[in-house]
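Ligand-bound model needed. pantoate.
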Amino acid sequence: MKIVDNISEMRLLRQQITVPVGFVPTMGYLHEGHISLVKHAKTENSLLVVSIFVNPTQFGPTEDFKQYPRDTQRDFSLLDRENVDIVFMPSDEEMYPGDFTTWVEVNQITDRLEGASRPTHFKGVTTVVAKLFNIIQPARAYFGQKDAQQLLVIKKMVADLNMNLEIITVPTMREPDGLAMSSRNIYLNPKEHQAALVLYQSLSLAHKLWRQGERNAEIIRQEMEYLIKKQPLAEINYISIADNNSLEELDTVIPQTLVSLAVKIGRTRLIDNILLK
Ligand code: PAF
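Prediction:
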């Protein structure tokens, strides 16, 4: 496994590669969710690049950029075990030199859900992902369904800017107790971890109601809210029942509706979602 920490070396290496490249962008502190992206990508590409870059521009001024967990040596050994070919790990200064002034922004769908709570988040995500795509020039890039809105925003950017690659969705990986895997789960103490199970419980309740024939989105939302409010450590940020392309809220639930939520457990803000099938 080759570790590349600067853009010019990555470009040089890329020029020598003649096969289509698979790409998994990450912010490191890898967990089973990332590994499932890597495994998935491995089956579809003969050469795989994984990036590790904690992107400062997608964190708001009061968010956890400085505290965001990092463990590069552990990440390297996990990626080595999966036979990743190249790890690209640029510095902040290289990605955002002092004279950096260009941003990639997707409008409308970024105003909702995560974008409503984190107004500059997606501008940072799309800018860094566009830069990474330009540097690595992948044929396919892999994103988790866990960050459902991020996935839609990236797909929109790729379509609108005619980027020449395929975006592949990989299902959410969960702990055996149902908690969606996330690098931020490390912030939860055992009591909070237990409380955080309410996210998936409420999504499972939505799914159960849907399977039983409930189609009124407001009723489903209220039932979810009622369940979450019984958990004293949980503070709801949003519960959304929305179209899985436009992210517009729905009155009537249809197949492939995206049910998503953000809930603070103690000081940790968690997100999760399911598609009603
Ligand atoms: O999902 C993430 O880890 C990040 O948002 C990404 C796509 C690597 C961009 O920094």
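The chain has nine helices and nine strands.
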